[in-house]
Amino acid sequence: MSDSVLWYTTRGAGAVTLILLTCVVVLGILSTLRLQSEGWPRFLTTSLHRNLALMTLVFLALHVVAAVVDPFTNLGWAAALIPFSSYYRTFWLGLGVISFELLLAIVVTSLLRGYIGHHIWRAVHWLTYAAWPVGVLHGVGTGTDTWSAWMLAITAGCVAAVGIAIVLRLTTGSPDPLAPQRAAFRAAVDRREVP
Amino acid sequence: MEATTHTERRVRARDAALRLLNRLTVGAALAAAAGVGVLGAVSAATIPGTITSTSTSTSATASTSATSTSSTSSSSFQSTSGVSSSSGGGVTVSGSSH
């Protein structure tokens, strides 16, 4: 395979991964709003969120593998797996490795959710809020195309999408009709657990 | 009877939603695969990587493509690695970092 093809694949897959990860984060945030309609039941949001998360990992793997096997980069597998071990743009590539490993942890714990329990899964899942911005910073810091108009538009669009979703999440009250009852139940359970 | 109709309607709605989920997932996968190609092509078109020598006596060689330039020529080039300047002025490589 041509070295140029690997190089362009790395860059293309990186941009696609950013878009997919953004969709995953936005769907995850929207799923907490319990949006639904007649043609869009609630499980569709969470199922699409899960499918896109797995897809993101595939394209992220393509991005990493293409970068590592490209002879021009000469990065090596250690640089792709151990944060801040790369000779090339150590900090920015290290952020990419951290984001990759956070996503891997999130996906693995989601697949093992039935075994590890809801609380651990939920705690790990909060890492998504770190993985996404770290991934964006990695792209801005080390991306060859960062300052190209098309890549700037993609990055700005992704940041705007997540920003709007977060604002919606924070400004919209809980749509859970049983929220007060659940809170009262948890409080009662907590009171009983106190010795 | 009415309960059965209601259940059937819910089952149909669920099946329709599952079909929509499959279509969206396949569509997203195809779009993402196409996106890698398209964005790769766009990145190649916008920043293909060029090597430009600014001296009349400069020659630059690449370790893999054996591209050489002389005088004020400019040629397509991918990487900063493996470039050496034999003499003369500076060699500027742009858009070649990964």
Question: Would you kindly provide a written description of the structure presented here, covering whatever features stand out?
Answer:
The complex is a heterodimer of chains A (195) and B (98). With 195 residues, chain A is an all-alpha fold. In chain A, 77% of the residues lie in helices and 0% in strands. In chain A, helix 2 (42-69) crosses helix 4. The relative contact order of chain A is 0.12. The mean pLDDT of chain A is 86. With 98 residues, chain B is of the alpha+beta class. Chain B has one domain. Chain B contains 1 helix and 6 strands. Chain B has one helix at 2-46, and strands spanning 50-53, 60-61, 68-69, 74-76, 84-85, 91-94. The longest helix of chain B has 45 residues, at 2-46. Chain B starts with a helix and ends with a strand. Residues 50-98 of chain B have low confidence and may be disordered. Chain A binds chain B through residues 3-5, 7-13, 15-16, 19-20, 23, 38-41, 43-44, 47-48, 51-52, 55, 59, 62, 67, 70-74, 88-89, 142, 144-145, 148, 150-151, and chain B through 13-14, 16-17, 20-21, 24-25, 28-29, 32, 35-44, 46-47, 64, 78-79, 81-82, 95-98.
Number of strands of chain A: 0
Q: Tell me the strand percentage band of chain A.
A: under 5%
Oligomer: heterodimer
Helical amount among residues of chain B, as a percent range? 40-55%
- Alpha-beta content class of chain A: mainly alpha
Beta content of chain B: 15-25%
Rg value of chain B:
28 Å
Number of H- or I-type helical stretches of chain B: 1
> How do the helices and strands follow one another from N- to C-terminus of chain B?
HEEEEEE
**What's the pLDDT, averaged over the residues of chain B?**
64
- Largest pleated sheet of chain B: 3 strands, antiparallel
List low-pLDDT spans of chain A. Answer: none
Keywords:
heterodimer, A: 195 residues, mainly alpha, 9 helices, 77% helix, B: 98 residues, alpha+beta, three-stranded antiparallel beta sheet, 1 helix, 46% helix, rod-shaped, disordered C terminus
